[in-house]
Amino acid sequence: MDYIDKRNQREKMAHSIIKRRNVIYAPPEVIGEKPQKAEAEEILDQLEKRKQEGEAQKLQKIQEMVQQQEQKQEADQAEINRILDERKRQLEKNIESGKES
């Protein structure tokens, strides 16, 4: 389209009158467009799905952290019990050696 065609088109549009009878009223499905409401619902569904996936991942991470904390507490408790048993044996040994003297 050259400059003259563009000018002619602008002039034609400037002098034309749009009449109501020339407008075609048709539902979006007939024209081939998706209705905006359906598209918006689709996007909202996708966002909700992503949100649920994100929450599931967060929940899984929290559960892993809780498991790690429990394992650490068990290991700490085992270490404490070992130290207490060792001290108890040392104390009993000291008491026995004190009685012998």
Summary?
81% of the residues lie in helices and 0% in strands.
**Biggest sheet, in brief?**
none
- Helix and strand pattern: HHH
Q: What is the count of β-strands? A: 0
Low-confidence stretches: none
Round the mean pLDDT to the nearest integer and report it: 84
Measured between the Cα atoms of the first and last residue, the distance is: 118 Å
Q: What amount of the residues lies in strands?
A: under 5%
Q: Number of helical runs?
A: 3
Shape summary: rod-shaped
Helix content: over 70%
Category by helix and strand content: mainly alpha
Radius of gyration: 41 Å
Features:
3 helices; 101 residues; rod-shaped; single chain; mainly alpha; 0% strand
Structure, explained:
By secondary structure, this protein is mainly α. Helix content is 81%, strand content 0%. The protein has three helices and no strands. The radius of gyration is 41 Å and the shape is rod-shaped. The relative contact order is 0.04. The mean pLDDT is 84.
Write the layout of secondary structure elements.
Elements: H1 3-15, H2 28-31, H3 36-100
